[in-house]
Amino acid sequence: MYNAAFHIAQFWDGRAPDVEEQAKGPPLNPIEMAMPSEQAIETVLQSIPDYGPLFRAAFPDEEGPITYDQMARAIGAFERRLVTPSSFDRFQSGELDALSEAEVKGLGLFIDTGCITCHNGPVLGGAMYQKLGLVHPYPTEDLGRYDVTKSEADRYVFKVPSLRNIAKTGPYFHDGKILTLEEVVVLMAHHQLGRELPEADVNAIVAFLGSLTGAIDTEYIAMPELPASGPSTPAPDPN
Question: Has 199 been annotated as catalytic?
Answer without folding.
Answer: no
